[in-house]
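[job 0417] fold request received: Response regulator
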Amino acid sequence: MDTQGNIVIVDDNPNNLQVLSQILESAGYKVRPALTAAIALRSIESLQADLILLDVCMPEMDGFEACRQLKKNPNCVDLPVIFVSALNNIEDRLTAFQVGGADYILKPFHADEVLARVKAHIGHSQTRRQLTALLAQRELALQKSEARYRALLNESPLAVMMYDANTWSVIEVNSAYATLAACPAQSLAGKSLEFALGSAQAAQLCDLTEQLFLRRANATALAMSAETSQASEELCMTMRINPIHTNQAIEFDARIKAIDYPYTQVCMVTLQPRQDT
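[job 0417] inference complete; emitting structure tokens
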């Protein structure tokens, strides 16, 4: 039978350990019994448990204190704990949930009830673990993608500037743009478009950017084809840029494109030296 999950049972009564182990093992779970909370706490992280069945009344360290200690471990914060106890008063039940318990089963327990509650919490635990692993994989993929993007951006022979279309400020520029502007890239980041381009060019770029986002909105509203939508999300203009601290203007063909970026509207302008006709 395939293992349905890893469960740690903590109870100072060997008979209870045996009965619970038999119930859970017959349902396909892998069980790790422990007679004391201290033993369980020392080994629980390395066991990669999916759930803990924890007795309340135990010598040396009771179940409530064991749960408090467990939840102090960052790697065990989300590990579900089901208390199993003969204590049937509201104060103990409230304490069980206050210290981080997920459920409370009364002794004498019934096999069907134990299995039903264990199945529910195991499912939540395994789903959470799978989502955590998936998010970690996606984060790693995003980091690799970001690294590739940074490499391509800085290796591009074309001058590229990314700017925030809400604040009209420079987000970043690549090496070619920094060379063109005769200004370090880090000195341009966060500066206004007017500082980076001059008043006239900044005003023209802002006007075209507003047109660009208006076209995007219209394309979405009209449910245009991918090809038409993509074409409408790029605009061109001629820009005359004065490298900072110089008076020599250089004329460029500029392509302006909106790009996906979280929480804000970001555009990218790519500059190519204009060919004399």
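[job 0417] notes: Strands lie at 6-10, 30-34, 51-55, 81-85, 103-106, 159-164, 169-173, 234-241, 250-259, 266-273. DSSP finds ten helices and ten strands in the chain.
[job 0417] exit 0
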